[in-house]
Amino acid sequence: MAPLALPLSPLRTSRERDTHPAVALRLPAIASSVGTVRAVVREQLRAWGISAQVCDDALLVVSELITNVITHTLSDHLKCRLSIGAGHLRVEVEEQIRARTLPAPRTPDPDEHGGRGLLLVGAVSSAWGVKDAPHGPGRIIWAELPARTEECH
Question: Are the C-beta atoms of residues 80 and 66 closer than 8 Å to each other?
Fold first, then answer.
């Protein structure tokens, strides 16, 4: 299934008004979707003039959040939304079916292959969290990053 970019109403916080329209993708919950979303996000951030450092951080966040949906839920598809407002970039990944537990950072053993994703998300984000999806049984995992502008590489 090819990714579908959907124009959405801009995401808003109570303290800021968005300056660019949001971008949304709906993809199958499979490993190859991670690369697809990374390419779309990189292109969009470049178009918005986001700095290379924020772009790299956003790509890490997107990769980790999507990988968590693929790994920890029984979702057939996922949605990724990206918006930029005055001073912040917001990334949202919506799972179709909830995992049995809430996403939470953990401290893996040094030899464990995985388990560091949300620690990384927390390290590069100014804030992140989880909320119920407005339609359906899924959840939305979101992160905000500062939206410094320059060219994304």
Answer: yes
**pLDDT for the residue 1:** 41
Nearest Cα to Cα of residue 140 among 71, 88, 91, 74: 91
pLDDT value of position 53: 92
Which residues of the chain fall below pLDDT 50?
1-18
Beta pairing class for 4-8 and 22-28:
antiparallel
Question: Is the Cβ–Cβ distance between 49 and 149 less than 8 Å?
Answer: yes
Contacts of residue 19, defined as CB under 8 A and 6 or more positions apart, other chains included, come to 84, 85, 86
* Gap between the Cα atoms of 69 and 43, Å rounded: 23
Distance, CA of 10 to CA of 44 (rounded, Å): 14
Helices (H), the chain: 32-48, 52-72, 117-124
Provide the pLDDT for residue 102: 67
What is the separation of C-alpha 39 from the centre of its chain, rounded to a whole number of angstroms? 13
Task: Specify the pLDDT at position 121.
Answer: 82
In three-state secondary structure terms, 119 is: helix
Among 13, 16, 15, 143, residue whose Cα is nearest residue 89: 143
